[in-house]
């Protein structure tokens, strides 16, 4: 059977990433269990300035890794250096947590023509890990990314979270799903108002009937349990009446399928006198049947089923109304009465991946990521979250969210905005560009108290993510808030802050070393540690 190229390429990528994943220690956060290999040497990184993000910067900072896990963070002289450690010294460098692109358009066509997606589509199966334009995330300092689709459909499927490798990606464990992607917009530019209104009215339609769907699944499970119970009772009842099964009325030495014309044996040969009766006693009630009873069957002294001394023979059905000794007690079957009715297997309701995904969303097990640009679209998304009591909703792009930033903050809904937000808005005139509602968007969200992350948002723009974020710093966004938006803040939006996003003991050792401050115009990435190992290093 032939498979589509995306699925085949994903399967190849998964097989090729197994050795990478196997390097992780089983007890580390995000690690995959497996056989332990030789213990890796500890790694020590010494830098001029260390930026944990979860705390203040540390001059002459030191990091210690063990496997893929950070063991110590602190100032040189205050951290114990293992004697057998592999030491990396960069006295002029700055160290940061691995960058997280929470709105990364990579490993896919820029505008899929026929995505054929719904809410439950696994978007990762359509990605191409070898797409040339998406290689090199590590070279940009990005160790983790939420891959989002730009397909022109209302539902875009489940966006994956991936770990960057040298030329491709691996699923982020143990949280490989960023959420279900949904569009509440006709796009960041153009589009008729009536089209936008129609899209907004249909936001909640997909959540209709979820209770009935869930009830049907629960009822089927209940019916299946009841069927299993009744089937057990049905079989137990019949076994209690006929412990030897279908061969009870045949000689033990004869197969169940023996034909009527099978040669006579000692057990079925007529006795002296020419009577066709079972051997071992006078004719019994079943003596008229020719050659069908084993020795002793038919009974001694006219007792049906009697063996020597009148004892019942194993495998012989008891007289009507009489139960074999211990049969009911041993098998839980009723002692008498009519045979239970054979149960019918319950009809299985059809599984719907889209409804399964939306059920996870409704229960808070999966986030709903809604692309919305204009204020009316954003308000509609917030209303959907309130009406459906959705606990995990994330706004994507939100390029015109500035004027209603306080409403978003009051709703407690996080936002993933694009670093190149001006390009997303695409003004038509110079005057319109000067009055752009996205000017200073990141600063306005920060001032309003909105929890937000910054992602590249456009194909291939992840290559310059720090520089794009630096533009927001130039527009008034504090540098520490900008750094948090592509590290710990992004991890919080994705629900993976326990594992990555800051340099702390116990977290995965994803570290980026830069030649100068991250947002400096002349700064460049010089080395990247991914899960404690060098994933990228600038050539000298």
User: How confident overall, as mean pLDDT?
Assistant: 78
Question: How many E strands?
Answer: 16
**Termini Cα gap:** 48 Å
Shape assignment: globular
Low-pLDDT stretches: 1-37, 246-318, 320-333, 422-436
State the helix count: 13
Structure at a glance:
The protein is of the alpha/beta class and 540 residues long. It has helices at 5-22, 193-201, 210-241, 327-331, 353-362, 375-387, 405-411, 421-425, 430-434, 441-448, 465-474, 479-485, 488-494, and strands at 43-50, 58-66, 69-75, 86-97, 99-104, 142-147, 155-164, 169-171, 177-183, 368-372, 393-397, 415-418, 452-455, 511-514, 525-530, 533-537.
Q: Can you describe what's shown?
A:
The chain is α/β, with parallel strands linked by helices. The chain contains 13 helices and 16 strands. The chain has helices spanning 5-22, 193-201, 210-241, 327-331, 353-362, 375-387, 405-411, 421-425, 430-434, 441-448, 465-474, 479-485, 488-494, and strands spanning 43-50, 58-66, 69-75, 86-97, 99-104, 142-147, 155-164, 169-171, 177-183, 368-372, 393-397, 415-418, 452-455, 511-514, 525-530, 533-537. Helix 7 (405-411) links the parallel strand 11 and strand 12 (415-418). It is globular.
Please specify the SSE layout and strand pairing.
Elements: H1 5-22, E1 43-50, E2 58-66, E3 69-75, E4 86-97, E5 99-104, E6 142-147, E7 155-164, E8 169-171, E9 177-183, H2 193-201, H3 210-241, H4 327-331, H5 353-362, E10 368-372, H6 375-387, E11 393-397, H7 405-411, E12 415-418, H8 421-425, H9 430-434, H10 441-448, E13 452-455, H11 465-474, H12 479-485, H13 488-494, E14 511-514, E15 525-530, E16 533-537
Parallel strand pairs: 1-4, 5-6, 9-10, 10-11, 11-12, 12-13
Antiparallel strand pairs: 1-2, 2-3, 4-14, 6-7, 7-8, 7-9, 14-15, 15-16
């Amino acid at each position: 059977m032939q498979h589509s190229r995306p699925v085949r390429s994903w399967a190849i990528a998964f097989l090729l990433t197994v050795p990478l994943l196997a390097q992780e220690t089983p007890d580390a956060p995000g690690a995959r269990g497996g056989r332990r290999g030789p213990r890796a040497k500890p790694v020590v990184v010494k830098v001029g300035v260390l930026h944990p993000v979860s705390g203040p910067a540390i001059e002459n900072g030191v990091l210690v890794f063990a496997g893929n896990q950070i063991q110590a963070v602190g100032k040189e002289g205050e951290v114990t250096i293992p004697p057998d450690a592999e030491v990396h010294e960069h006295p002029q460098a700055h160290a940061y947590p691995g960058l997280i692109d929470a709105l990364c358009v990579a490993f896919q066509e820029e505008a899929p023509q026929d995505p054929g997606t719904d809410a439950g589509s696994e978007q990762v199966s359509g990605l191409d890990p070898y797409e040339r334009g998406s290689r090199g995330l590590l070279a940009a300092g990005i160790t983790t990314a939420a891959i989002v689709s730009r397909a022109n459909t209302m539902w875009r499927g489940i966006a994956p979270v991936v770990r960057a490798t040298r030329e491709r990606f691996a699923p982020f464990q143990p949280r490989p799903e960023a959420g279900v992607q949904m569009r509440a917009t006709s796009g960041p530019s153009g589009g008729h108002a009536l089209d936008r209104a129609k899209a907004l009215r249909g936001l909640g339609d997909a959540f209709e009937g979820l209770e009935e769907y869930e009830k049907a699944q629960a009822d089927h499970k209940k019916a299946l349990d009841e069927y299993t119970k009744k089937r057990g009772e049905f079989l137990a009842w019949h076994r209690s009446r006929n412990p030897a099964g279908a061969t009870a009325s045949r000689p033990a030495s004869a197969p169940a399928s023996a034909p009527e014309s099978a040669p006579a044996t000692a057990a079925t040969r007529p006795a002296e006198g020419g009577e066709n009766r079972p051997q071992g006693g006078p004719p019994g009630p079943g003596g008229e049947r020719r050659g069908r009873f084993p020795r002793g069957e038919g009974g001694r002294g006219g007792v049906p089923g009697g063996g020597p001394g009148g004892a019942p023979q194993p495998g012989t059905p008891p007289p009507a109304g009489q139960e074999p000794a211990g049969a009911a007690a041993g098998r839980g079957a009723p002692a008498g009465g009519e045979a239970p009715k054979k149960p019918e297997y319950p009809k299985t309701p059809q599984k719907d991946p889209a409804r399964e995904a939306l059920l996870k969303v409704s229960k808070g097990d999966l986030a709903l990521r809604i692309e919305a640009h204009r204020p009316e679209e954003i308000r509609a998304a917030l209303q959907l979250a309130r009406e459906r009591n959705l606990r995990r909703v994330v706004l994507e792009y939100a390029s015109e969210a500035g004027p209603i930033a306080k409403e978003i903050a009051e709703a407690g809904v996080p936002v993933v905005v694009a670093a190149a937000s001006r390009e997303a808005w695409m003004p038509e005139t110079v005057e319109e560009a000067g009055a752009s509602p996205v000017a200073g968007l990141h600063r306005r969200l920060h001032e309003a108290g909105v929890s937000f992350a910054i992602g590249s948002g456009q194909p291939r723009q992840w290559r310059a993510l720090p520089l794009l974020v630096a533009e927001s710093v130039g527009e008034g966004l504090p540098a520490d808030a900008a750094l948090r938006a592509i590290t710990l803040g992004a991890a919080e939006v994705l629900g993976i802050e326990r594992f990555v996003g800051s340099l702390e003991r116990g977290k995965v050792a994803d570290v980026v070393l830069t030649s100068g401050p991250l947002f400096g115009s002349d700064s460049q990435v010089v080395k990247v540690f991914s899960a404690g190992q060098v994933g990228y290093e600038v050539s000298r």
